[in-house]
Amino acid sequence: FSSKKWINCYMNYLRHIRPTLTGDDILDMGIPPGPMVGDILASLHRGKMDGELISRQDEVDMVRRWVKQSH
Fold it and tell me: Given this model, what pLDDT does residue 71 score?
């Protein structure tokens, strides 16, 4: 891709990709407030951008796996 195509791709598509779960959703799942919430949101965002997380349930499952691995 040329620089112009990357910018066009970002402006028209990539900048609109966001996880469906919010910080409040993550807190409601029992994650305590703190840096972990931001880490989880960043990981969800990467998963959405990479096409690994399609549905809200995919995101919930990822958060649950994250919690299991961190304990």
Answer: 65
DSSP annotation of 8: H
- Residue 12 — very low, low, confident or very high, per pLDDT cuts 50/70/90? confident
Cα distance between residue 67 and residue 40, in whole Å: 9
What is the Cα–Cα distance from 47 to 66, expressed in whole angstroms?
A: 13
Contacts of 62 (CB under 8 A, 6+ apart): 43, 44, 47, 53
Which are the contacts of 52, defined by CB distance < 8 A and separation ≥ 6?
Answer: 58
- What whole-number percentage of the chain has pLDDT above 90? 65
The string of DSSP letters for 24-69 reads: HHHHHTTPPSSHHHHHHHHHHHHHHHTT---SHHHHHHHHHHHHHH
